[in-house]
Amino acid sequence: MSYPVQYCTEEVIKEMKERFIKTLKVQSQNEKIFKMICPKDKGCNPENVNITCSEASPRVRRSLRISDAHAAKFYELETLKYSPSDTRYRRFLQPDVHPVLKISFSLELHTNESDTTEEKPNEENIIDELNKEPESLLTYMNEKVSGNVKDVYNLTSVPSPEINYQIMAVCSIGQIRVRNSCLNCPAGTFKDDVTESCKECPTATYQDKEKSLSCLPCPKGYTTYSIMSKSSEDCKAPCLPGTYSNTTFEPCLACPFHTYQEYSGRKDCRKCSHGLYTSRVGSNSSSDCAYPCNPGSYSDSGLKPCIVCPVGSYQDEAQQNYCKICPPGKSSETSGSNSVEECKEIDICQVSQPCPNMSTCIHTEDGYKCLCPEGLLGHHCEINIDECASDPCFNGGTCTDGIGDYICSCPEGFSGHQCEININDCKQGSCENGGTCIDLINDYKCECVPGYSGQHCEINTYECASNPCHNGGICFDKLNSYKCCCQAGFGGENCELKVDPADPCDHINCLNGGTCVSNGSESSCSCALGFRGEFCEENIDDCSDYTCYNGGICIDGVENATCHCSLRFTGKRCEEDAVPEYTLSFMKQTTSNFVKLETQRLMHAITVSFFMRSNYKNDKSRATPVSFSYYNKKERKLVDNALTVLDINRIVLFLHGELIHTGYVANKDSNWHHYAVTWEGSKGEWNFYVDGEIVVNGLQTGKKKFFWPGVFVLGQEQDSLGGTFSVSEAFVGNITEFNVWDQYMSEDQIKQLSASCGFVGNVIPWFTALRHIYGSILVEKNEFCRDIGACNEEDCNCFYSNKSSDYICSHIVSTCNPNPCAHNQSCIFNGEDFFCNCSSGFQGQYCEYDVDECLENQGGCSHGCVNDIGTYYCTCPEDMVLSKDSSICKDTKYCQENQRIFTDGESWLDSCHNCSCIQGEIYCAEILCSPIICQPEENMVSLPGDCCPKCVLWSFCLISPNSSMTSFDLSQYEFLNDCTHTLLEDCINGLFKVQFSSVKNYSRKALIIYYECLKIEITHSGSILMDNETLELPFMDTSVSINSDNHSIDIWTHSGLHVQWYANGEILIAVPTHMSKHMCGVCGNFQSYNIIKPGKYNFYGTSDEEDCYLLGEDYLLGEDYTDNFAQNCRPSLAFLMTIFIIFYSCFVGP
């Protein structure tokens, strides 16, 4: 598009380009042609825009090249470019000459590749469409661009530019253009881009697809019969050797008899030389041509090499593959017969003896037959069966074939007819120290238990070689491990941890509220009052020094004792005569007058009985003669109206907190009246009596409940346990004969109580009230009881009764037949009364109430308590079990005995008893000694900690006063300089270590024994130190005993180590012989146990780096002795005069 303008600058060109691109982008979203040019899914942008200035008329070529329906289209406008600085530009400033603004752009046209077949446009439709659309496009663009020109140049109008365009098709790959259309190159051809034409595929190639740029080659050696092949099946293979064809390619024919072809791809076959023949068609070598077999012989092919006909047969023709059998009864005398005339009537077995190899010849009608021995076959038994063909020899054995048999020559390590047996190379003692021998082929290997190595498991790994113990800890080698004995203040497996001194109380469990007290080294339990014992486990029997008089029975408690008195006595120790008859007078309404009576038992039933007189009338008062309250420990709450007789104006009864209106007026007169309340918990049945008659009763009140131990108060209503009184509820009047029983009395029994005085309650007897009076209550003679009389000696619960037990009175029944007692309890007749004999788990007249022992003090259980019918049992949390008393829970992870703690499963010896910790309990069994008889070379000894003597065969190591030494195997050594040597070390169990300071000046010699982390030192002066503290002798515990006299110091250990230090300077070390082979150190002579200690041996010198020497019978021993020497340093007679010096480093011992 070209527009004449007044001027043209770079700024104008830039602004016009930006406006044009913006217009083109907006349009591409609206017009149909633009959707083809720049669809959204292609992500294209119309950026190829060029704007220039020109002085000439617009020379515009518009072309649109079209390819197939899937390719892009281009729309190009070509213009001449002018620079504003060009001299020709100045002419545009003349009045008649104007510069021309030219806009050129190219567009890419797309069709929708996802169009369906019906909607997809073909090329003709595209061309038609493009013939229509560009005109409208350019018209639209002219409108938009003209507006841009107006805006830029501030013009009112702009002449329309001249529009010319051309449409051209651009073909895709593999197509050629024909008359403005694109055609695909067909199969069998390819597109030649040079000639822009389709070319035929040459021979040996093919192309099975259209629009191809090349042809595909046939496999190597294959070809096609013609050009333009369209399939790989047109590729044919050349004829193979032994075949031919006119084309030299498939299909091919086999070479006929007596011809051959050695090469591939041939049109004919070659004939065999004169007189030679082939045995088959398709021969591919001249070697297949051979002479025919002569008469009297044959072969499978009829050609040479040939086999002569055997005796009894003939062949009269040439080139045959068999022999003819002689007529019946005839046979040839020799092999190779070529005529039937040679077959004669003879006994061939006698004449020719044709059966070799010890076979048997049998004459037959048609000749003979050979019977072959085992291992041979064939007509003449000429074939030896190869028994080695089946490879019968195992494990690499070599087979030698025989006749009917074979022989296997076995390699070393195997035996048997077929070498099937692996000779067991393991012999007894092949592997030491518990190693397992594994048989190999002509060899064996030892699988060692952990801690041992070497070909025969003869080497114990020395785990202390790396000095694993830190901070001065002493290392003890063990089997496959080590043990560190740490200095004070350090701990951990390698003494690597700095630890505070252990609190002795950490593992002490003081019982029954006791407290552990420690001084840092020792501990003890400070017991709560009422307990004693090392762990406060014993409840002090307070009855041991507490006397109950007048037949009273002492009941032990915790830090207290109480007396259960007989009916006629009272007082703390039953020392007072009981006063059965008296009256209490509450003279005025005040909170200070009351009687407080405590109960000590759970009650499943109750009977409250008393006489009362009061004519006190006050409408504002609710005078209360009796109230009972208790604390429910299970529900943890106070029940302040458990049983209350309230308001004498019109009595209100409370039972277990339930309010019951009786309607009875108790202050209607000034006479004495008897009142009683009965209740039982199984049905919640209750009765309120006045003068022996039921006033009101009911059921379901407090069912399944019971009365906890609590407080009865006479004269006040309680709002707290035994207190919080109100003046308006204070009683005014007289009370006598107040008794409480833990049974549900019958109506007849209540009538008896209302008719006389002198009855005594088994929970609260009336005579005990005298000692619990508070305030100004008057105690007066009971004139009323004198009037009505007292109970007699035949009555139960009577103060004057001669009944032997109040228990019998509480459980009397009418008969024992049938047994009325519940829960299978026994019924007893004592000659006077029938009564139920309840076990401790039941209560009630008929033993009908199960006692919940867990309610009071949790049944004495330290943790959990579970009630059961008639009994209870204690439970423990996880990881705890009941102790033998079935009450206290113990931790199952450990047991405690005195101040010693043992882990679960641990066993130990205690005073000649084998003890074990099992689930928190200690079980011990006495050790019984059997009689023993020692061999002459043995000694009978009793070692520390042993309960029974044993027979021991000893091995000795001796150090003489002159510092020479004799080891266990009697080898001699001499300590040459001042060093501290390890004489002995238990390298299996790590129990002990013995070190010796070999000082030339004997007065400075010393011996140190480490035994189970206990350090025992004998100084040059003969003093004995244990853990650096002077030890008083004799000393004995379960592991070590030390004694001394004027001549020697004797040290014995439980493991069998025995050390004697003599005053003359001699030192004797002895261990049981069976242990000596496990000993490392100088006494072990560095051998027998063959211990490997890389680097430095665990010897200690008197300085950091001082060479230590031992002069042996054959060697001077020193640093870095070799493994060979470590395994075999016994003196050798072959080297008696040899001095072998090996240095080893020696460090200062602890």
TrEMBL record:
What are the EGF-like domain coordinates in residue numbering? 345-382, 384-420, 422-458, 460-496, 501-537, 539-575, 812-848
- What are the UniProt keywords, alphabetically? Disulfide bond, EGF-like domain, Glycoprotein, Repeat, Signal
The residue ranges of the VWFD domain are 955-1130
**Keyword set includes Nucleotide-binding:** no
Q: Name one GO molecular function term.
A: calcium ion binding
Which residues does the UniProt record annotate as the domain VWFC?
893-952
| Ranges for domain Pentraxin (PTX) | 580-785
Record flagged with keyword Flavoprotein: no
- Disulphide bonds annotated for this chain are C372-C381, C410-C419, C448-C457, C486-C495, C527-C536, C565-C574, C838-C847
Top-level taxon of the source organism: Eukaryota
Protein name, UniProt field: Sushi, von Willebrand factor type A, EGF and pentraxin domain-containing protein 1
Instruction: Please give the organism.
Output: Stegodyphus mimosarum (African social velvet spider)
From the broadest rank down, the organism's phylogenetic lineage runs: Eukaryota, Metazoa, Ecdysozoa, Arthropoda, Chelicerata
